[in-house]
Amino acid sequence: MKNLLKLDENRKLDEIVFEHRNKLYGAYALRKEEGSVLNKAMFLGISIFLALAITPVVISSFNNSVSDGPDLVAPPEWVLPPDVEKDPPAPTVVTPPVQKPVATYNSVLPTPTKAAKELPVTVVNNDEAVPGFQDTPGAKPMDTYTPPVVNPGTTQQVPTTPVKVKDPNAVVKEVDVQAEFAGGIQAFRKKVAQNFNTSDYEGSGEKISAMVTFIVEKDGSISAVKASGSDSDFNREAEKTVKSIKGTWKPAMLDGEKVRSYFRIPISMQFD
């Protein structure tokens, strides 16, 4: 009764609040339907609660009804037949080989007597029989002699020196015959002096020197020309001059064969 009065009061209050206002607005509709919405929500909540509370009871009763059925028959047990004892195999009888009678010859020296009896003679080859007390024909005896094993002992191995394989392209420092310019070293020096460009040093009064090193190849050509001295410009000009010299070299010789070898020649010039 109080709720109905309260709802009636709320309705009057809603009419006063929404007087001269748009009642089609959502707030008025919500306040007007508040009671019915609350009742529906209450009944729905009670229904869900009862359903959740009854569900375990229904499930347990269903399980009990299923378990009350007839008992399942257990599958038959398979029984293996007993093992049949087999008779043990008969032992193998090893028959020793039958030895043939071996031929023997009478190795007893006869005792000389006055009345000697003549006995029948059995011919036996002494080389194919063993000594005995009488002559007995038979098989030839087997040769059971085993020669002794001779231990050769430990043989001392002499270390062998590995043979060095010569590199045909190696540059040899020590040779039997030195490389030589065709025409002699003086002819080579003369060509260097004639082809050297001295225009940058004329009138300087300097004396400049350098050591030129190069490799004389097997075919008589030269390579790897390198000049070392205090003046870098002079070194470059010396290298250029040596490379420009026309002519061939006789390659160095080692063990009767042509080899590549180093050749060094000093170049020194006095400029007036």
How would you characterize this protein structure?
The chain is α/β, with parallel strands linked by helices and 272 residues long. The longest helix has 34 residues, at 34-67. It is flat, with a radius of gyration of 67 Å. Among the domains are: 2-52, no CATH class; 171-270, TolA/TonB C-terminal domain. The strands form three sheets. Strands 3, 5, 6, 8 and 9 form a five-stranded mixed sheet that branches. Strands 1-2 form a two-stranded parallel ribbon. Strands 4-7 form a two-stranded antiparallel ribbon. It has five helices and nine strands. Strand 8 and strand 9 form a beta hairpin. Helices cover 30% and strands 17% of the residues.
Shape: flat
Question: Which fold name fills CATH's third level, the topology of the domain at 171-270?
Answer: TolA/TonB C-terminal domain
CATH architectural arrangement of the domain at 171-270: 2-Layer Sandwich
Radius of gyration from the alpha-carbon trace, in angstroms: 67 Å
Low-pLDDT ranges: 1-5
Please give the count of helices.
5
Beta-strand content:
15-25%
CATH class of the domain at 171-270: Alpha Beta
* Terminal residue distance: 145 Å
Per DSSP E runs of 2 or more residues, the count of β-strands stands at 9
Overall pLDDT level: 75
Binned, the helix content reads 25-40%
Structural class: alpha/beta
Q: Could you give the order of the helices and strands?
A: HHHEEEEHEEHEEE
Question: How would you sum up this structure in a few lines?
Answer:
The chain is of the alpha/beta class and 272 residues long. Helix content is 30%, strand content 17%.
